[in-house]
Amino acid sequence: MDKNNDSEEISLKELILKLRSGFNYIKSKWAIILLSGILGGALGLLYSIFKKPIYTATSTFVLEENKTGGLSQYASLASMAGIDIGGGGAGGIFQGDNILELYKSRVMIEKTLLTPVNINGKNELLIDRYIDYNKLRNKWKEKDHIVSISFNGNPEKFNRKQDSIITNIVELFNKKVLNVEKLDKKLSIIKVDVATSDELFSKAFNIKLVETVNDFYTQTKTKKSYQNVQVLQKQADSVKRILNYSIGGVASAIDAAPNANPLLQTLRVPSQKKQVDVQANSAIYSEIVKNLEISKISLRQETPLIQVIDDPVLPLPIDRLSKSKGVILGGFLGGFLIVVLISVRKFFDIILK
After folding, report:
1. Where would you find the membrane-spanning parts of this chain (predicted)?
2. Helix (H, G, I), strand (E, B), or coil: what is residue 147?
3. Alpha carbon of 145 to those of 140, 148, 168: distances in Å?
């Protein structure tokens, strides 16, 4: 028992002596550590000077929930015309976190990048603005030998290089530029952040992305109701033309026998037939108009579906590394790394001996 205690005491004593010896060794290298700290501080200063500031454009919007009540009194009438006024058929694809993924999808980002905007009086595509301020054309010219490339025209007819460039930009945006999140899981408020080194691009892209998703959301959500309105409107126009023609036919039949003998009933047959057509078409037209108005109410009920709360406003918040912070962080990292390097080297020297 005593021997074990002695061995433990010796081991602890040796450990303390080794730690003290290592500390003294590191302290003896203070000049190298100081020089490394100064060098790291200088590198940190240069990094803070040449590092481009990041401008973050933020939009917040609330996603409206489905409104399924309010039209139940018209359900039986609308069902006669085969109209579904439930208003919830397309909403499921946008519920939960699906709306967040929609913002990150290639389709939405690509549509936004290919949108023309006016920045400082110059009309240009957002993708051209992004390429120019990042000087990507020079990189493509040196690396991929791409002399010139344009993104005007139909995206469906883009070649392999154009599609590849857009794919790379979309991936970069999802990793570093675009951030979409819910402020609170219990709330329906969603925040969209776009962070780039071009302040005007950040703002323009943020606004256009929200508009693009908003339009896509509205069109998809209201597609069925909109189609119902279009079909019923065409039917109403068609029946109205026939009704007008029938009314004209009644007048023509009456004019054909202006002073008909009341005792000759056969002279009234043409006008009476036309009158029956007028009555039938009037009843049909009345029902179609009712159903058309119900369908329009359903369409109005479903739009708008996204309500923007805040838009990005200049000047945008800036994420920038200050010179003092760059010097402090650079000096600390430089000194820390050299201490680690000295310690590792000393450790291996001890093992080899």
Report:
1. 30-50, 326-344
2. coil
3. 6, 9, 17
Residues 6+ apart with CB under 8 A from 14: none
Distances from the Cα of 191 to the Cαs of 64, 73, 103, 172, 310, in angstroms? Answer: 15, 38, 11, 19, 9
- Smallest CA-to-CA distance from 327 within 43, 36, 31, 33 is with 43
Helix 223-256, helix 199-221: angle, nearest 10:
50
CA dist 29 to 37, 79, 240, 331, 341, Å? 12, 88, 98, 16, 12
What stretch of H or E contains 142? Answer: helix 136-143
Burial of 234 (0-12, 13-18, 19+ CB in 10 A): exposed
Strands 178-182 and 189-196: antiparallel
Which amino acid is present at 106?
A: R
Angle at 41 between CA 37 and CA 43, to 5 degrees: 115
How many Cβ atoms from other residues are within 10 Å of residue 212's Cβ?
A: 20
SS3 64: coil
**What's the pLDDT tens digit per position in 251-301?**
665 555 556 555 555 545 565 566 666 677 788 878 888 888 887 887 777
Q: What is the crossing angle of helices 160-172 and 126-133, to 10°? A: 70
